Amino acid sequence: MQELDAKAAEVEKVLHPLIEAGTVIAVRGGWAEGTESRETNLPVGKSVVTVAVMSDHPEQLYPEIRRMVEASVSDVALDFEYLKR
User: Structural domain boundaries of the chain?
Assistant: First the structure.
């Protein structure tokens, strides 16, 4: 559980500017079960960090968020959820 918390904290640190701006409203960690989730295609054995985004068009933000995280945090898979403004 500490590893999940550590990965989520790393992602949260990287996304701090977006959190301060109110674009990212939550970051939480979890694990993928099985070999690969057919619903999300997330790999097993990696931490899965869910990033909650507040935006009218969140899909436009996902690539930027993914680049920010992948440049700084290793062995993490991202999942997204969104709330519309």
Answer: 2-83
Question: Residue holding tokens 């068009």?
Answer: 57
Distances (CA, A) of 76 to 29, 42, 65: 10, 10, 13
Q: Is the pLDDT of residue 38 over 70?
A: no
At 80, is the pLDDT very low, low, confident or very high (cuts 50, 70, 90)?
very high
Fold entry, domain 2-83: GMP Synthetase; Chain A, domain 3 (3.30.300)
Contact (CB, 8 A) for 81 and 54: no
pTM, to two decimals: 0.80
Six-digit token pair at 74?
């290793």
Residues with Cβ within 8 Å of residue 12, at least 6 apart in sequence: 19, 27
Stretch 8-14: mean pLDDT: 96
